Amino acid sequence: MKKKFLFLFVIILILGLVFWEKEKKTNSFDGKVVIQNQSEQTLDLEKQFNIILIAVIDGQTAYDLLKTQYQVLIKEYDLGIFIEGINDLKNTDQYYWAFYLNDEYAQKGADQTILNKGDKIEFRYEEIAF
């Protein structure tokens, strides 16, 4: 009887851990951020993602807003910064993080784009067009 109880306890514990890990992965973002998988291809590097954020205050840069929600890998140049990765998704020879302001390709870098309340910024992991 004790062996059956121990076996059942171990099974329940394993199932609980599996469901807890799944729940932890699916609830990693709050309501302010939308990440949309736009491609159902098999390789992770071939998936495209969008990160959408809305400015809630005036005067903040797009880069500063992005940093409030994500870990950002950058490279600094004389003209400003270049975003090389967001969280664990880095630029490659085929894909990069494109920056859009209010649904149009941004004319300045994220660190030089000053936002007004209500501005929509979007970082899209896009394929580089050759």
Q: Rough shape?
A: globular
- Helix tally equals 2
Terminal residue distance = 68 Å
Strand order of the largest sheet: 1-2-8-6-7
- N-to-C series of helices and strands: HEEHEEEEEE
Q: pLDDT average, as an integer?
A: 77
- What is the gyration radius calculated from CA atoms? 20 Å
Helical/strand content category: alpha+beta
CATH architecture of the largest domain: Beta Complex
Let me know the largest β-sheet: 5 strands, antiparallel
Task: List low-confidence stretches.
Answer: 17-43
What proportion strand? Answer: 25-35%
Question: Tags for this entry?
Answer:
alpha+beta; three-stranded antiparallel sheet; 2 helices; Ferric Hydroxamate Uptake Protein, Chain A, domain 1; 130 residues
Question: Would you kindly provide a written description of the structure presented here, covering whatever features stand out?
Answer:
The chain is of the alpha+beta class and 130 residues long. The protein folds into 2 domains: 1-28; 31-127, Ferric Hydroxamate Uptake Protein, Chain A, domain 1, CATH 2.170.130. Helices cover 25% and strands 32% of the residues. The protein has a 5-stranded antiparallel β-sheet, covered by helices on one side. A 3-stranded antiparallel β-sheet has the order 3-4-5, with no helix packed on it. A hairpin with a 2-residue loop joins strand 4 (80-86) and strand 5 (89-90). The radius of gyration is 20 Å and the shape is globular.
What's this, in brief?
Helices cover 25% and strands 32% of the residues. It is an alpha+beta fold.
Topology:
Elements: H1 2-26, E1 34-37, E2 49-54, H2 62-69, E3 72-77, E4 80-86, E5 89-90, E6 95-101, E7 104-105, E8 120-127
